[in-house]
Fold this sequence. Notes:
Layout: E1 4-5, H1 16-23, H2 36-49, E2 53-57, H3 60-72, E3 77-80, H4 85-88, H5 93-96, E4 101-104, E5 107-108, E6 111-112, H6 114-120, E7 132-138, H7 151-163, E8 168-171, H8 175-182, H9 186-190, E9 195-199, E10 210-214, H10 216-228, H11 237-249, H12 254-271, E11 285-289, H13 297-306, E12 309-310, E13 312-313, E14 318-322, H14 329-344
Parallel strand pairs: 1-12, 3-4, 3-7, 7-8, 8-9
Antiparallel strand pairs: 2-10, 5-6, 9-10, 11-14, 13-14
Helix pairs in contact: 1-11, 2-11, 3-10, 12-14
Amino acid sequence: MDVIDLGSDTVTRPTERMLERMRNAELGDDGREGDPTVRALEALAAKRLGKEAGLFMPSGTMANLVAVLAHTGRGGEVLSDPGTHIFRSEMGGVAGLASLFHRAIPAKRGVMDLDALRETVRPALTPRSLFTALIVMETTHNDGGGAVLPLDYMAAVHRLARENGVPVHIDGARLFNAAVKLGVPVSEITAHGESACFCISKGLSAPVGSLLCGSTEFILRARAFRRMCGGNLRQAGVIAAAGIVSLEEMVDRLAEDHARAKHLAEGLARIHPSLVDPDSVETNIVRVDFAKSGRRAEEWVKALSDRGIRSGAWSTWQIRLVTHRHVTDADVERVVGTMRELWGN
């Protein structure tokens, strides 16, 4: 039985065009005189995001950590919604390695309450409170089921931050999914932050890597912190070459992943409306709620796995399904049919 892997879009494999470019990449030492292919990817990423410079990173987690370090140094608070990846899934690096404190702002699907944010921002240290070192926004929002932050909301957060002299970092692991959903150049999203990062190893299908972009001065500091964190690279052009193809050829097709996720959600909702609200599916992530079934998420993950469908438990009752370029229309139908069969049992 062929396995359908909906556990994550990180399972995407490089295209033939990527492999060709990787084989023929011009190489150098990125930690010394520079790797020309890495530099080309960094320049391309910065141009797409409307920033002055870019930095190739081994992972999105390191990109976020380095961004925090480069913006803040040590001390102060980082404000974000409580479900951001930087605090939910990055092993406490902001506290353990950057010596910063996280203050969660009430939010819905990644959209922080602006009144609460306004009341919480502190431009300077006082005898009664820490200063605000950084504000973080995440789009698409993983914990929000792939939700896309509205541009007017992002603009309001950025305006509030500037009024208080606080930088904004945009965690855009699936940034290009957000741009495709909104139908805008990605630079219209990243204009609302001093820095932004995105992964090339998810829906964009490159094998590894992320890009962090910002001002020239910011990236110079970030390069030093990348080295501190053990992320200094050598002949990294062999993987950066795939990232160039990602940005040149793989962005527009993300709409196909979104369409299949919506189709999947609609099929599951027909089994039982409590499973998923199709209107909540904006990009390539579908969160399925099995509370009405009485069977926990881990039971469903195992039952699906036994039938050749990989997924992941997100909470006690919910699983996450992620579409990507290796998931076909026929795969979606098979998943819906299998789920219908399991629901009836």
